[in-house]
Write a structure and sequence with these properties.
- This protein is of the alpha+beta class.
- It is built from nine helices and nine strands.
- The strands form two sheets. Strands 6-5-4-9-8-7 form a six-stranded antiparallel β-sheet, with helices on both faces.
Length: 266
């Protein structure tokens, strides 16, 4: 346990106040004035005013005349946590079956901002492929197989947004790709329905990625299979892996839609 002094030094008091402001908006009180927020939070009117305007600038509150209310951006915070947890629960048994059928390592990733985040991974036995991909690993979406498999089936507007979004500090790869080269790769992925390319992490590995789409064809995630390039040619990879990977992606897509509680957002 931290001592009271140490604990106070490790906290950001203004952030706690801001979260307290958000918490006073409820189903019974969806709209509040500055004075009502001040009373409910125990803050003085000036602090409440600054907190409300800061949260409004950040997109978490909106204002109509003197009344403030929550925006859907607040709901997205909860949706992101629920979606990631539910998605892993849905995908894990399907990925295990895929690995059992193909004997290759499988992963599931989603796009968040300008990155792909790996949300599930199943290894093939005890073999190691010389690449340290873990749940939570992030890579630039535009240069990764999973990202390209998803971007190929997104709108031009979404592709531009992902391509221009900055990657997180510490992203697992510094490989970059030009916009023109990305367009060529996305055109091929859209035509083929998958991405097959060399790994951006380790030489000598091939990656096959297939999008997980909803009923409207919008990509929610993507599956990847990784195997040593020395084991087979590209054509062997296609004939052996595309069918099982596409079937697994379709199963995950159907399971997501049936669950009704999973939401994946950029």
């Amino acid at each position: 346990m931290l001592s009271e002094a140490a604990e106070s030094k490790s906290l950001v008091a203004s952030l706690i106040k801001g979260l307290r402001v958000l918490e006073v908006f409820t189903a019974e009180n969806p709209e509040l004035t500055i004075s009502q927020v001040a009373v409910a939070t125990g803050l003085d009117a000036g602090t409440a005013f600054r907190m409300l305007n800061t949260l409004m600038a950040a997109g978490y509150l909106s204002r109509r005349e003197k009344m403030f209310r929550l925006t859907l951006k607040v709901a997205d915070l909860g949706f992101h946590a629920i979606a990631r947890s539910d998605l892993r629960d849905i995908a894990r048994p399907i990925l295990r079956e895929l690995v059992g059928e193909t004997l290759e390592a499988a992963s599931l990733g989603v796009i968040d901002g300008g990155d792909v985040i790996y949300v599930e991974r199943v290894r093939a036995g005890i073999s190691r492929l010389g690449v340290d991909i873990r749940i939570g690993t992030t890579v630039p979406a535009a240069s990764s197989a999973i990202g390209q498999a998803m971007l190929a089936f997104m709108s031009d507007q979404d592709v531009e947004r992902v391509f221009n979004a900055p990657s997180r500090p510490g992203a697992a790869s510094d490989v970059t790709i030009s916009r023109s080269e990305l367009s060529v790769r996305l055109q091929a992925a859209r035509r083929d329905g998958y991405v097959l390319r060399e790994s951006i992490f380790t030489l000598g590995l091939r990656v096959l990625a297939v999008p997980v789409c909803d009923s409207d064809g919008h990509p929610l995630a993507a599956i990847s299979l990784v195997a040593p390039a020395s084991r087979a040619s590209d054509e062997d990879f296609r004939s052996r892996l595309i069918g099982p990977a596409a079937a697994a992606a379709a199963d995950i897509g159907r399971a997501i839609q049936m669950s009704g509680s999973v939401r994946i957002a950029l």
